Amino acid sequence: MRISDRRFALYLMTPAALFLAVFVAYPLFRLVADSFFKISPIAGGPRDFVGFQNYVTAFTSEAFTSAGWRTFAYTLVVVTLEFALGLGMALLFTTLGKKSQIWRTVFLYPLMIAPIVAGLLWKFLMIDNFGLIGTLLHQAGLLSDPNQIGWLSDPNIVLFSVAIPDIWLTTSFMCLVLFAGLQNIPGDLLEAARLDGARAPALLFRIILPLLRPVIAVALVVRGIDAARAFDTILIQTNGGPQSASETMSLLIYRTMIRFGDPGLASAMGTIYLLAMLAIAFVAVGTIWRPGKDN
After folding, report:
1. Residues 30, 36, 39, 45: is their CA dihedral positive or negative?
2. Which helix (H) or strand (E) holds 222?
3. Which of 253, 246, 245, 244 is nearest to 274 (CA)?
4. What is the pLDDT of residues 51-61, one digit of tens each?
């Protein structure tokens, strides 16, 4: 029995389509649908339709807007530093060539550490009273007291302190992606530019970065979304404190759902958060990658 190519392709796609429908489309549909209801946290409790009331409550909540700005600041700091450090290391590894094989392997080790373990490690390094970083800075003469800087207890700097484990963990991912992109840049193009008298800044900003646009767009979008949903490292270090100064959007949604027992409001926050991430991703791809505009 012969079947057409079209039908054969449909047979091949059916398992993947079923998987996506069950594990992606249905949870998203439930998330959006639940955002229009006032849901009792008790199993079998009432479920009342309230329209857009949960969205109004979210947008008028100071905790929601504050968490949104903190998530934006956290993501901006983390992704900017990871991109700068990752690009620098990728350029260094490309310059070293085969001599960088061992260093590349060592540099990738943080990727193998679980985020919750990294959070615990950096918590003990920065915690007040016996944190190793404060003690080392005091012994080096940079601080008059080991507890002079409250890395995890000062509301003014805690958001940047909890970002350090994230930067330490995933800079190697950014470096790996950018290093792979650098391998696809033709060497004769760079050599011709050098013969024409182009110096290092001109090579970087006029040739390398423009050719890396698609890779940079993918790396920034993937890491941006990943950083914006940071949860475990912050939870283990500060649990969102002190005074909610490190409470990002993921932590706020988690608390609204689990601690305050309001699944409907948490679903509305999650839906707004999802739409914001999609909008930022489309803008990033359109402005950095610019598919079809460079041809």
Report:
1. negative
2. helix 213-228
3. 253
4. 899 999 999 99
